[in-house]
Design goal:
Radius of gyration: 21 Å
Helix content: over 70%
Distance between the termini: 24 Å
Largest sheet: none
Number of domains: 2
Structural class: mainly alpha
Strand content: under 5%
Amino acid sequence: MWNVLLSFSGLVALIQLLFLPFFPESPPYLLLQKEDKAGCLKAMKQLWGEGNYHTEFDDLMKEKAVTKGMKIMNVLEVLRERSVYPQLCTMLLLLLSLQLCGLKIFRTANLQESIIPYVSLGVSISELISIIFCSSIIDRFGRRMLLCGGYLLMALILVLLETSLLLSDQFLWLRYCSVILIFLFIFAYGIGP
């Protein structure tokens, strides 16, 4: 019944994709990244209803003042920063644990047992690449676009994956398409959600 579980996550992603355009950008993002004070206040009112949000707005302005002199670091600068090593180690351990996920899908696709560990390692590598790629483009495109694009890609990939797994007994080449689709699903998840 793993395919039902996989379909459920696709349904949740589709629901989020449908409702995401109706929500405003994050107020901190609008103020700190876009420097849009009016948009920030408008987003606060839309998210929290009518009210006085001067305290929250002032807190954001203080945060903006504190971070104004700070340089936004790129991925390589973050990797060189010793203070983030514990978080980085935790993230790497989680990525390495991804090797154990998807084994059932690979067996369902009738892949040879000898190549399944290598395919699982490929899944972890694609997750790592997507995280690095996302962290380098998130400031340029914003969270909303990455979330919408990621959920849309995930929904499309899940439909194609389910189809390829159902037809993999009739067309042997679809087994390898399933592996590629899993890599693409992980990549889409890492970029967006």
